[in-house]
Design brief:
InterPro entries: AKR2_Oxidoreductase (IPR053135), NAD(P)_OxRdtase_dom_sf (IPR036812), NADP_OxRdtase_dom (IPR023210). The protein has one domain: TIM Barrel (Alpha-Beta Barrel). Helix content is 41%, strand content 16%. The chain is built from twelve helices and ten strands. The protein has an eight-stranded parallel β-barrel with strand order 1-2-3-6-7-8-9-10, surrounded by six helices. A two-stranded antiparallel ribbon has the order 4-5. The longest helix has 18 residues. It is globular and about 50 Å long. The chain starts with 5 loop residues before the first strand and ends with a helix. The mean pLDDT is 97.
Length: 309
């Protein structure tokens, strides 16, 4: 299996609650720290064995950085053989509870950047190779915050690549602002068959020399067998593949895609996601499934309404 273009995102593994569909079935009732650590290590082992070498965490992903750091050291993986990205901006406040009123709180300030960078470095040490603004938006102003950009420049000069992740219906504008800033090495954005609106901006970022990382390629489970639109499910059946594999094949087919993140919470999901590398995407599929695209505002409204399971 050729997994060199895949990364493993730990949003669904580092904390007990998340918005991915079907977590009750995937995780069961035991979501203790010990159980989630064991599950995370199992998926990390499977990803490593399959050839995945990029791992994506964040300060807000519960204990994701801690779980990843422990696994890297327990498996004695040399820092130079793996790429680890993390993010600053959100703080996890869920307290390892399923019923927490808030699970994360966002603040894109230089003060939070400095504090969370220190936390990430304490856990990940020499493994940290990419540090990203978490869910920047055009309206937040973070991409024009001189103090934030100065800290990021210092970090980049210290040998850590810097990136920005985007969110919301104005992703394209945010990507263009990141390119304009001229200091970012990567941009991570949502692109999938339901929400392809950032595509032209991601192409521009790629042409400007940034590596494009694609997140949410299966739309938090909406493009998997659990909830696949009929057109996607039918096309997948015809090809003898899973809906998620076909949806991720669409991402891999974009000429600007550098890394595609799998958000798998189980080894079975990971295997299904990675099988996308063997799926041939065609112009006919592009045309046939183009009707799945939703207006960006509608897509992000639906995403915001997904419950934390």
């Amino acid at each position: 299996m050729n997994a060199h273009r895949f990364g493993l995102g730990l949003a669904a593994l580092g904390r007990p609650a998340y918005i991915t569909l079907g977590r009750e079935e995937d995780l069961g009732g035991d979501r203790s720290v010990a159980a989630m650590r064991s599950r995370t290590w199992e998926v990390l082992d499977a990803a490593w064995a399959a050839g995945v070498r990029y791992f994506d965490a964040a300060r807000s992903y519960g204990r994701a950085e801690e779980f990843l750091a422990g696994w890297l050291r327990e498996r004695a993986i040399p820092a130079g053989t793996v790429s680890v990205g993390s993010k600053w901006g959100y703080a996890y406040v869920g307290g390892w509870r399923m019923d927490a009123e808030q699970q994360e709180v966002k603040e894109l300030s230089a003060e939070r950047l400095r504090a969370q960078l220190a936390e990430s470095r304490e856990l990940l040490g020499p493994y940290l190779s990419l540090y990203q603004i978490h869910s920047a938006t055009a309206e937040s102003g973070v991409l024009r915050d001189a103090e934030v950009l100065a800290v990021l420049r210092e970090l980049r000069a210290d040998g850590v690549a810097i990136g920005v992740t985007t969110t919301g219906p104005r992703q394209a504008e945010t990507v263009d602002l990141a390119v304009e800033a001229g200091i970012f090495d990567t941009v991570q954005s949502t692109w999938n068959l339901l929400e392809p609106s950032a595509g032209p901006a991601l192409a521009r970022a790629y042409e400007a020399g940034l590596t494009v990382i694609v997140k949410e390629g299966v739309a938090n489970g909406r493009l998997t067998a659990r909830a696949a639109p009929p057109a996607l499910a039918e096309a997948a059946r015809e090809r003898g593949v899973t809906p998620d594999a076909l949806a991720l094949a669409a991402v891999l087919a974009r000429p600007w895609t550098g890394v595609v993140l799998s958000g798998a919470a189980t080894t079975a999901q990971l295997d299904s996601n990675l099988s996308a590398s063997g799926v041939k995407w065609t112009e006919d599929l592009d045309e046939r499934l183009s009707g799945l695209a939703e207006p960006p505002g509608a897509y992000w409204s639906t995403r915001a309404s997904l419950p934390w399971h």
